[in-house]
């Protein structure tokens, strides 16, 4: 082995040793949970149930605490390596660059929510789905979205490729995860947003004027999206995600994951995506990794 190869080998060995020593030096005493779900919402209740389950399973020596933070702030904290984990956040390739994930739910992608009466202006395909890239070019229709929030990788990519017209789409740093955006639509302050229909239906029960909003599937965004707990890619974060994954692999964890899916997907939707659901529930061979999206 020549000197150059020896040097490389020694460098790799040293890096591995440093990593093991760092893991050994870390302790998982407590976790700060980050949540972005709106107050008094079903998603907030689901997050609280998830935190209660994990606190009980992990049995950490110090009590955990929960911080309500918008999506942008939550991911700033994770990127900075703070000892905090987002309790329910979408999985994307970009986020896996800075966080470890333990997946706990899947759902269909969010839909386009529009004000009543703009149907004639929407670019629809023959199946009645909205072609979002074309919509983003229509300056006469104003969109309202949440800054720092992922809408699923397919939709995120469409938004990233949008024209840079500041008047076409406005992004808000909403502490309530965008719960007020449908109200903006109902009051005529925007024409469309992107949200899960269940959330809008729940808000409509409290604000009847939201019942007039229309819902459309976004063309190309039909495959399930996955969400779960995300922790920073640090030695502490690895310890945390390993403990969380172990908790989800228990029978109680499997039952909770099933309950999470039941809350956001109908029986018919679950049947159509039975393979993905079964993969999510079978965690005997380590953390679940979703199959690549269909081309």
Give me some keywords for this one:
295 residues; alpha/beta; D-Maltodextrin-Binding Protein, domain 2; five-stranded mixed β-sheet
Which helices and strands appear, and what pairs or packs with what?
Elements: H1 3-25, E1 32-35, H2 42-58, E2 65-68, H3 71-79, E3 84-90, E4 99-107, E5 111-114, H4 132-135, E6 143-146, H5 153-160, E7 169-172, H6 181-186, E8 192-195, H7 197-206, E9 214-216, E10 225-232, H8 235-248, H9 251-264, H10 267-272, H11 274-281
Parallel strand pairs: 1-2, 1-3, 6-7
Antiparallel strand pairs: 3-10, 4-10, 5-8, 5-9
Structure characterization notes:
The structure is a single chain. The protein is an alpha/beta fold and 295 residues long. It has two domains: 30-108 and 224-281, 3-Layer(aba) Sandwich (D-Maltodextrin-Binding Protein, domain 2), CATH 3.40.190.10; 111-216, Periplasmic binding protein-like II (D-Maltodextrin-Binding Protein, domain 2, 3-Layer(aba) Sandwich). Helices cover 40% and strands 17% of the residues. It is built from eleven helices and ten strands. The strands form three sheets. The chain has a five-stranded mixed beta sheet with strand order 2-1-3-10-4, with helices on both faces. A three-stranded antiparallel beta sheet has the order 8-5-9. The protein has a two-stranded parallel ribbon with strand order 6-7. β1, α2 and β2 form a beta-alpha-beta unit.
């Amino acid at each position: 082995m020549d000197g150059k190869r020896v040097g490389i080998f020694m460098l790799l060995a040293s890096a591995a040793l440093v990593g093991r020593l760092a893991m050994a030096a870390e302790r998982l005493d407590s976790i700060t949970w980050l949540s972005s779900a709106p107050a008094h919402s079903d998603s907030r209740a689901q997050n609280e149930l998830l935190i209660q389950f994990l606190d009980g399973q992990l049995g950490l020596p110090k009590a955990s605490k929960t911080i309500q933070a918008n999506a942008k702030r939550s991911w700033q904290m994770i990127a900075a390596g703070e000892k905090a984990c987002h309790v329910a956040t979408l999985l994307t390739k970009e986020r896996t660059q800075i966080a470890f994930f333990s997946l706990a739910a899947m759902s269909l992608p969010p839909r386009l929510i529009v004000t009543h009466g703009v149907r004639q202006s929407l670019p629809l395909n023959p199946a009645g789905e909205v072609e979002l890239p074309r919509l983003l070019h229509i300056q006469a229709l104003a969109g309202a979205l949440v800054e720092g929030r992922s809408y699923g990788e397919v939709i995120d990519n469409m938004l990233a490729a949008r024209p840079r017209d500041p008047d076409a789409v406005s992004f808000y740093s909403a502490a309530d995860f965008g719960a007020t955006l449908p109200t903006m639509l109902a009051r005529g302050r925007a024409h469309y947003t992107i949200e899960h229909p269940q959330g809008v239906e729940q808000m409509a029960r409290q604000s009847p004027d939201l019942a007039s909003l229309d819902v459309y599937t976004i063309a190309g965004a039909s495959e399930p999206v996955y969400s779960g707990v995300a922790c920073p890619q640090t030695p502490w974060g690895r310890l945390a995600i390993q403990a969380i994954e172990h908790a989800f692999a228990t029978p109680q964890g499997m039952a909770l994951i099933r309950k999470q899916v039941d809350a956001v997907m109908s029986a018919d939707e679950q049947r159509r995506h039975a393979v993905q659901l079964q993969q999510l529930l079978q965690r005997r061979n380590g953390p679940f990794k979703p199959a690549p999206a269909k081309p």
